[in-house]
Amino acid sequence: MTAQTEHSQFPTDETLAAYIDGGLDEETRSRVAEHLADCAECFEAVQVRQEMAAAAPAEGRVVQWPRNALVGLAAAAAVGAVLFLTPLRDRVWPHDDIGALAAVAPPKRVIDGRLTRFPYRERAVTYRSGNTDDDSDLESLEFRSVAIKVENRATEHPNARTLHAEGLAYLTTGDKQQAIKALETALNRSSSPDPQLLSDLAAAYIAVGRYQEALDTANRAWGMAQTPEIAWNRAFASQRLEHRAEAIAAWNKYLELDHSSAWVPEAKHNLEDVISK
Amino acid sequence: MEPAELFEQHLDQINRIIAFICKRNHLLPQDCDDFRQHVHLKLLEEDCSVLRKFKGNSSLSTYLTTVISRLFSQHRVHLWGKWRPSAEAKRLGDKAITIERMITRDDYTLQETIDILTTQAASSYTRAEIEALYVRLPPRQPRAVLVPDNAIPEVVAPSAADDDLMREQRERTARGMASAIEPAIEMMEKEDKLILKMRFWHSAKVPDIASALHLDQKKLYKRLERLSAKLEEALLRAGFSRDDAADLLAHGDHNLTVHLEKRNPRLSKQADGEQARAQAGGRIDRAD
User: Fold this and answer.
1) Do B51 and A138 touch (CB under 8 A)?
2) Best of B12, B26, B59 to mutate (most A CBs within 10 Å, chain A)
3) Structure pTM?
4) How far is the C-alpha of B214 from the C-alpha of A22, rounded, in Å?
């Protein structure tokens, strides 16, 4: 018995799925399109995916709009039609790349720092070779597929926002030097310093052991906004620099800001670690 | 992570896709269960080789949809026993097969099929699409069935006869137009053929086609204009008027509409007792 689902050598399930998500080069895209013209089975897969995407919001909720809201909605729809012409849309209503990355965050995190909007994940074990234990599961692969899109967008429209997201994509997939480069470029391109960007850059510095730069950057962010992410990175950098009193104060500050998230046990553990030394 | 754990972890997502495909193909609950088991088995086979093949070139959800959709195409023969779809329905795809199955095997009228398929929550069918596919399927041969004497009026009302005539004429025109443009579509470049298939078989709107095939929408409108000119020539050559051709090509979203009237419930849908009475003292008539 075989687990074969593909009817021929081309396109494989992987290639057809990449076609549907718009992830193929022009030559392969064109080959798949030619195949679809004569293959009902593959054409069905394209249709099913499109119909599922269309049905998702309809199944998700039913909204009763007041009658007088419909005129406003029609006007909004007309404006929406114009706005959705890329790349104008990107400028007026940017993609939420960081949100998209955070939504498919891999099951384990490969860095000690905390990234903007990323949910808590247990720290992956890093082996002597530098490899981590998280690179084989499907969530990581799904994250990579989103990361590729984020990277493409940053290449096509390099600005502080897209480069910031690209930096987080690199950092999460373990490419720390590229992450620092992207985040520093994002910082240089931003018209005014963004505390979240500074915090993520601090996390990247922590990842490569540049703890003093990490602390300076996190402190700079802390001066602008006091968020749990910034508090975490600030505390972690202090801890690694063995600034005992500063680290204890910073972890306590973190625990004042965050009482109940999944990050709290690890923060408490770090605090106990500093106190015990 | 163990492959079986991967499967467990994504089971909800897998079952959602299976449920969507079952609903789209109007499967009976027991057939859905059967298909669900088949998919689970296939995904677990060879240490979850299908899941392990995923390299992340698309989202996982798209990958699973592709795999499960293809599994359905291979599995449907098993589901439907002796009934076989026509070659044309197979060429047109799962939706055409569902429509043909409901009409020829399950004995629904076109109108009933439309009602059932379009009134489900978040239906993936539109009336225009069902009608466009219906006229491309081989015409249904009227079945000889027994009906009781009293079910047949002594004098058929003229308006009903006119309606039937109109319906037949509309259906004939729609079928004629469909068969006139199809050879022209077959002659076209592969991607053009795919675009026209979506436009005229599935009544897809231009933005949806552009999105599904990753084409520039503005250019697609121009491309469709050029292709429509070729199809218009084919229709004119086949003897259709310029008005008919223009109407069809300008209104791809609701072309070839047949507008069949709702018929009275057929004998096959009546109570068993009535069927028995019919068989005992009835006479032969045409169901359609």
Assistant:
1) yes
2) B59
3) 0.51
4) 7
The residue behind tokens 């009228």 is: B109
Q: Do A146 and B67 touch (CB under 8 A)?
A: no
B206 is in which domain, residue-wise?
161-254
B261 pLDDT band, cuts 50/70/90, is very low
Residue A115 — pLDDT band, cuts 50, 70, 90? very high
Clarify whether residues A205 and A110 are in a common domain.
yes
Inspect the interface and report whether the beta carbons of A5 and B197 lie closer than 8 Å. Answer: no
Q: Is B194 on the interface with A (CB under 8 A)?
A: yes
Chain B neighbors of A136, CB-CB under 8 A: 1
CA B23 to chain CA mean position, Å:
13
- Pick A119 or B285 by higher pLDDT: A119
Which residues, listed in sequence order, are joined to residue A132 by a DSSP beta bridge?
A126
- Does the beta-carbon distance from B191 to A42 stay under 8 Å? no
- Tell me, yes or no, whether A118 and A42 share the same domain: no
Tell me the shortest Cα–Cα distance from B164 to chain A, in angstroms. 34
Range of the structural domain that residue A213 is part of: 105-276
- A52 and B65 within 8 Å at the Cβ level: the answer is yes
- Domain endpoint, select from B79, B103, B120: B79
DSSP state of A132: B
**Is-contact A183 A197, C-beta < 8 A?**
yes
Are β-strands B144-147 and A122-123 bridged in parallel, bridged antiparallel, or unpaired? unpaired
Helix (H) or strand (E) holding A197: helix A195-207
Is a pLDDT exceeding 80 seen at residue A63?
A: no
Shortest Cα distance, chain B CAs vs residue A221, angstroms: 34
> How many residues does the structure list for chain A?
277
The answer to whether residue B226 neighbours chain A at the CB level (below 8 Å) is no
Question: Which residue, of A40, A59, A78, is where some domain finishes?
Answer: A59
Contact criterion met (CB below 8 Å) for B190 and B83: no
CATH of the domain at B224: 1.10.10
Tens of pLDDT, residue by residue over B128-145, are: 888 888 888 887 654 445
The nearest alpha carbon in chain B to A134 belongs to: B1
**Å from B196 to nearest chain A CA?**
10
CATH code of the domain containing B14 = 1.10.1740
Share of chain A above pLDDT 90, in %: 33
CB B72 within 8 A of CB B93: no
As for how many domains chain B has, the answer is 2
pLDDT recorded at residue A248 = 94
Q: Provide the domain count of chain A.
A: 2
Note whether residue A1 is domain-resident: no
Q: What is the pLDDT of residues B75-123, one digit of tens each?
A: 887 877 778 889 889 888 889 999 998 888 888 888 888 888 887 766 7
